[in-house]
Amino acid sequence: MSLKGRIALIIPVKNEESSIGVLLESLKAQKRKPDEIIITDGGSRDRTVEIIESYGKKGIPIKLIRSRAAYPGKGRNMAIASSDCDWIAMTDAGIKLDADWLGNLMRPLEERRDLDGVYGNYEPVTSSFFKECLAIVFVPSPKLINGKKMRAHFIASSVLKKDVWKEVGGFPDFRAAEDRIFMEKVEREGFRMGFSVDAKVLWDIPSDFRTTFKRFALFSMHDIKAGRFMDWHRGVIFMYLWGAILAFLGVIFSPFWYLVLILSVFLRSSNLMREKVEGARLPFGMYMKKLILVTSIMIWIDFAMFWGIGKYMMSKLKKEDNE
């Protein structure tokens, strides 16, 4: 059965000159083309807009909306509102689409007319040892969905009816967590979402400690602004309070408690590796090398989280001083 209605692909971007070309090349190679491509630039200060416009000159029919300042949620809302298509597919910069991504994403909608949307699959780009270890720390493991393993509920690999977007009130205007909040609204409202394991995208993740710190500190601060403190911060803070207790016991009673603290840290990272099916097939030396880097990245992200909390508190104090 053919699906009635036109499809718009919407993409929010800002300062993505290093990644936008990869996305647009993969979009150019799509076997099934969207009827409309709308990109919202949220105020880029690099060559992002120039690169997008150059692809427009190459024949890709891109509608570019320029905003002085727009977080991803606002950018998506602006793009969707400007479209007259019935279906809205979504992806982001930092993504490479599989050649038949859109075709596979739409297929469940053609097979089941009761669906309001579909979540596709995604994989992290693990092209370096650092990225392999970073993926272990924060990328969720695939889950069994409809008898197949996949990573789903990823806004950058999804499609839904435009009416669904209207019904839930669009995306909130946040820098982080806006996608989670939107998808939770869709679920609460009872809309029926399908899944396509074959609708794959590759998600590029940070490649070094510096970029990782900047990204997670930013997410930390904006997660709190979005009211998502319970999602991430609470559990990590609890673990560090436990660590502080062990350190205190080491000072007062015995260095034995320092050993318990160190073992607790490595137990946390080894559990991550075991959950991601890492280490079981590795030689001992490689396993230890990966365990040490996973542990280092894990602690580094925790530090970035606390830094983000500090930046949030400073911004609140500054705002109160100005009032």
Description:
This protein has 323 residues and is α/β, with parallel strands linked by helices. It has two domains: 7-203, Spore Coat Polysaccharide Biosynthesis Protein SpsA, Chain A (Alpha-Beta Complex); 209-322, no CATH class. Helix content is 50%, strand content 17%. The chain is built from eleven helices and ten strands. The chain has helices at 20-28, 48-57, 72-81, 101-111, 129-138, 162-167, 178-188, 209-225, 233-252, 256-275, 284-322, and strands at 7-13, 36-41, 62-66, 87-90, 95-97, 117-124, 143-145, 148-150, 158-161, 193-203. It has an eight-stranded mixed β-sheet with strand order 3-2-1-4-9-6-10-5, sandwiched between helices. Helix 9 packs antiparallel against helix 10. It is globular, with a radius of gyration of 22 Å. It starts with 6 loop residues before the first strand and ends with a helix. The mean pLDDT is 92.
Question: Top keywords for this entry?
Answer:
8-stranded mixed beta sheet, 323 residues, single chain, alpha/beta, 2 domains
Q: How would you sum up this structure in a few lines?
A:
This protein has eleven helices and ten strands. By secondary structure, it is of the alpha/beta class. The chain folds into two domains: about 200 residues, Spore Coat Polysaccharide Biosynthesis Protein SpsA, Chain A, CATH 3.90.550; about 110 residues, no CATH class.
